[in-house]
Predict the 3D structure of the following.
Amino acid sequence: MTDLLPAAVATALARVTPWDDAHFLTGLEPGLEGHNALLELAVAIRSEQQALARSRPLAGRVFAGMFFDPSLRTRASMAVACAKLGAHFLDLQPGTAMWTMEFNDEVVMDGTAAEHVREAAAVLGRYADAVGLRAFPTRGQWERERSQPVHKAFAAHAGVPLVNLEGPFAHPCQGLADALTLRDLFAEPAGKRFVLSWAPHPKQLPVAVPHSALWAAASQGMEVVLTHPEDFDLDREALALADGLARQSGGSLRITHDRDAALDGAHVVYAKSWGALSGPASTLGGHADVIASHSDWRVTEADLRRGAPARFMHCLPVRRGVVVDDAVLDGELSSVLDQADNRVWAQAALLLALLRR
Amino acid sequence: MTDLLPAAVATALARVTPWDDAHFLTGLEPGLEGHNALLELAVAIRSEQQALARSRPLAGRVFAGMFFDPSLRTRASMAVACAKLGAHFLDLQPGTAMWTMEFNDEVVMDGTAAEHVREAAAVLGRYADAVGLRAFPTRGQWERERSQPVHKAFAAHAGVPLVNLEGPFAHPCQGLADALTLRDLFAEPAGKRFVLSWAPHPKQLPVAVPHSALWAAASQGMEVVLTHPEDFDLDREALALADGLARQSGGSLRITHDRDAALDGAHVVYAKSWGALSGPASTLGGHADVIASHSDWRVTEADLRRGAPARFMHCLPVRRGVVVDDAVLDGELSSVLDQADNRVWAQAALLLALLRR
Amino acid sequence: MTDLLPAAVATALARVTPWDDAHFLTGLEPGLEGHNALLELAVAIRSEQQALARSRPLAGRVFAGMFFDPSLRTRASMAVACAKLGAHFLDLQPGTAMWTMEFNDEVVMDGTAAEHVREAAAVLGRYADAVGLRAFPTRGQWERERSQPVHKAFAAHAGVPLVNLEGPFAHPCQGLADALTLRDLFAEPAGKRFVLSWAPHPKQLPVAVPHSALWAAASQGMEVVLTHPEDFDLDREALALADGLARQSGGSLRITHDRDAALDGAHVVYAKSWGALSGPASTLGGHADVIASHSDWRVTEADLRRGAPARFMHCLPVRRGVVVDDAVLDGELSSVLDQADNRVWAQAALLLALLRR
């Protein structure tokens, strides 16, 4: 395959050391060095995209995407990443056109589930060279969900690398793209202040993106500030991981409920809503009061222009007028489209690293 | 890319002058000359399809199709057109596997819509080199729908060419294929009589296809006759556009409620049903009486054999025994399969024109 | 195209004699010799998969898969088979994103069906070089369903080869893969004992797979033993076909209700559940008692280890603890993943044979 790669891509690929078991469940598996090597590979692929479209280095390779939950950007960007490298994207949406699935072991399957993950994952692993999986958590069961049990079951039985396309604990493809965007924004991200700011939202959203965003910024040696109202703590282990990455890369992590203090001196404001981890099972409703009582957490243009203008980041989709003002999204400080665009190149780098032989 | 094209295709492509903003919302954007250059390009691609399948001139390019409403022919023919040229077809069906979408500006998005068209369209425009969109009109709101607001919103924010895969006012891909079919049928379509004849149907169907069919025939200099019962007028502006095209190409447009007179001397009978533009909001039901009272508008073989046999055209899908007799569809005068087939080549021409660099 | 094939593949392909009308509805159309030539082609393709992925012998060709019923393995394996040969897989799921369809002739289509199979099939045949179709039977109408009327209607009107992706009477792609698996398991399958053993299941499943499994084993000259409880007879014609194949290939077919006697000396135990052909229309429920009263038909490890260990086969998806014990599926005697894997190569052979020009 290497002879099909432009020299810059081949060189960058060679610097990505394969990691144990080759899964990508939190995105931290490659280690800090491996993670940053993937980012350099993404830059090389982006530069050489026309040559790659013709040489098709992954021709005949298959990436299967299993979506238990809805997706626009992730499906589309994975399909495009595959297309750019000549791989085939196998788009699977269980629950619509497919069988329901059993995840527990030693169960007598006389109910509605027609297939066990042991067979489903293993068969996909025969058809595909890597398997992607999206499955959101069931609310109200955080202690169980935080270990990403559905993803782990697929990883255990697929026999090929498992890529998390958003799980309960992490959204590592988003994180990789966000780290790439931070590198694009700043010649030297290290030392710049990155503020992850909680935002109001009508739904109690998962914490996968804020976790991955923290790790992305921490991996670049940034001064990471996390700010949210009381009762919206992120997962303790996710915070410990962010702290460890920050120490390793020369950055720092600070957590505060004082939004004003957090925004001072920010180079980046990354807005994201999430529900309390200990909250009730309902994912919709009951949160209207949160919007009303926390409307001052909505990002405004003034928030970005306290000092040197800060860049605005968000993973999308975003609720205008709730999470952030229209003026911010439509203004020159928004990086949200670059974040979405970088999904393609970050994931293409991951695919190339996982599917090389 | 040009070095990947057979000479006949390269020559035909060079004759398609790029048009302002590169959108294809009514299909009239390229102008009469550009429209006919696209048809010649379609013929060249059809002839050289085997060479193109191997050279893959659009390798690495992506066409995204966004289907808010159901589709068989359009999805399939766009997928095939992409495959024939080596492009990737990104098939997106919002409402099924994706987020619902907000189209109004300056709205506080605290309801069910999770994403605004401004972000959705802009992100698709980052992932795809052109975006296709299907969205049918809401009945009973013609004055609003006739401007194709959803398509315009996507076109405004996508940042890449927007191709209408059927909207309220036009179905330009069908129109382009129909014009190609007319050229295939007649060495010289100019002066031949093209009759667009309203037909009964249990649903109040949109007017996009009859509009585009009128423009297709008018663009070929045909003697266009539109016939329908009272109360089924097409849109005033659509008729004006047809009249303008007819004048420009040496043809004519005539409208009559006298179906018998219209069919006399017809070379083509294009059947199509549509609901009254001023009709009630219901799209199904209440139309059974229309079938009963207008059953003489169903196309029979006798209709086609009054003089020299006329060809039968319809965009499909078609209700047998309601719109047209089985004998017509199964007989030698039917061109409906050629129309469907030409969707591939007409759209391939459009893709090549839009995605060349 | 032949110049794009590795020599071993070209040689094997040349040995597959085209058969009348080129459909693949029961899988028996190529005849015994043709069937076995397809298996040798599958082996050649599997060996040369890397070269084929680069040369893409079916570039520009389209295979359309029409799924009226859910599918994981068949959709995925067909998509992968296409990708391995460079063909485009057009994945169509009517009833979700498409129009409902009329199958009866001379009907006035004033109901819900918007399109007749005559047009739908013919249009697909214009877009695709071969069409695949999955449609399960309606229970309680076996005398009508056994002739696979929906498949026959598509085959009659498509104008291109029609591949059965599971119908009421046969699942020939599964059968081809199973025959390939039997050849992989045994240097010489002829004379080995193949036991098709009915199994309990909460649903009254179709008989397509057991029919095709019988034919697969019979075509390899095996000693085929079919065992099931009373009232679960397979179709009379399907049994006659199996008997004919067995005679032609030097094998045999025996049917018994005595499961113990059947399992003695088995080299392969192929488990599969099916409902009684004369049973009521309900496909779910009422079968719980069948599980309870026939739990001794569940395959255990002891069943496989009566003498020389027998291999376990099943088409998947499989109900653990109902059809078969976990220990069997997770043990070294299971061939279920190889069966699933061989779907790709069996179907790739079929595609290459059907789509060569």
Summary: Residues 102 and 116 of chain B are 5 Å apart (CA to CA). The longest strand of chain B covers residues 62-67.
